Amino acid sequence: MKLIIAANWKMNKTAAETAAFCREMRRDEKLLEGLDVLICPPFTALPAAAEALEGSSLKLGAQNMHWESEGAFTGEISAGMLVDFGVEYVILGHSERRHLMGEKDNQVNLKVKAALKNKLKPILCVGETEEERINGATDIVLEKQLGGALTGLAAEQAGELVIAYEPVWAIGTGKAATADDAEKACAYIIKYIREKYGSDPALQLRVQYGGSVKAENIGSFVVLPSISGALVGGASLEAGSFSALVQAARKAVLH
Ligand code: 13P
To answer: What is the mean pLDDT of each run of 10 residues along the chain (255 residues)?
Structure first.
């Protein structure tokens, strides 16, 4: 399965900084061969990124969207507006949106459906907090988040998803999950999809690990049977460290 490595820049980088990052990444397009590598800049930098990436195999993603196509939704962005700039992927239900902005599973569900309807590939984020983990509730949390976000999806739609397992306690802390814990959670996600939608979507689905991923540890995640990539925050902000991370992932899986 093709690895998918996504850079989630969160609220970082101006348009000029984005263009400079893209130029630097494009110095070695060979790095991207055989992998899906994408950057998810803030909305305001999407036009600059789209322009700088023209003809490149580096893909473009967004960090959020609204489920309606237009209307009185101050401050929101629709799927159609993202597609307009060549955006192919959209991160949905990131833990920062769930925990800091109060985003709920039913809203994530509306977003997933709107993204698929507009031919955007959702990167659906799920993951437990530290307290939930300590209480042994990881699978329960994953089941609730998946059930809530995927309500009403057809089997072929489930197969089009990318699901990112991002334990909240591992995000931005420098404390990544162990390979064993990450594999267990990602295997649970695949099992959930298999049981609910059948084996074809479960085989098609790509599951990423996210949370303190860097060049030094990505290799230990992408070789695992249930993990097909990574969602990267901090280590994706400099072209140098992101290139090193992509290179390390290639080396681990492609030899
Ligand atoms: P860090 O890689 O900075 O831990 O962030 C992970 C993340 O939230 C990616 O979406």
So the answer is: 97 98 94 95 98 96 98 98 97 98 98 98 98 98 98 96 98 97 98 98 98 98 98 98 97 86
Domain span including residue 24: 4-254
0.70 exceeded by the pTM?
yes
Output the CA 92–ligand 1 centroid distance in Å: 14
Q: How many domains are there within the chain?
A: 1
176 DSSP assignment: P
Alpha-carbon distance of 239 to 7, in angstroms, equals: 10
Q: Which of 96, 103, 166, 183 is catalytic?
A: 166
- CATH number at 122 reads 3.20.20.70
Nearest-CA residue for ligand 1 atom 1 is 233
94 assigned to active site: yes
> How many CB atoms are located within 10 Å of the residue 174 CB?
9
Ligand 1 atom nearest 214 alpha carbon: 2
